[in-house]
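Subject: Sanity check before I submit

Could someone independently write out the structure tokens for this chain? I want to compare against mine line by line before I put it in a report. The sequence has 155 residues.
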Amino acid sequence: MLSGKRAHHVFVVLSTIEQVPVARRETAKTLALWGVDPETAFTAGLIVTELVANVAEHASAESPTATVALAADVSWLTLAVHDSHPRLPRALATPYDDGGRGLRMVMLLTEEAGGRHTVEPTAGGGKHIVVHLPLPFGPPLPDFQEIARQRPFTG
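---
Independent answer below. Compare away.
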């Protein structure tokens, strides 16, 4: 894996549906290079796919690009997707609500993996969605307030 070091990778994709597989492949390539276990890498790929697709579908008019940030150490994998659209997304409350299914899926995948996520506005009027996934044999998840203070990038 990362042998005690912290790794970072940030890339930008256009906010179009055609760029969703580009983001997924870049995420998969990076996580394989870092030695992230296949199950966590698969979950991370699904999450990045859904978040970039959400930007393309819901935010592209005001956010022509999406920034994807990946960070890992021996214990945690952090994924973040940033766009410049000011509206914060909301997850659907029930399976029958309109909209919000993508964020709901991200929430469920994150919780199933034992991680946490946040949706945060940025000073520039956009937002980023940050997901923390535990890596095998890592320590327990830090306090939620601590997670909120740890951001792989600011925007």
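---
OP: Matches mine. For the report I'm noting this point. The two ends are 29 Å apart (CA to CA).
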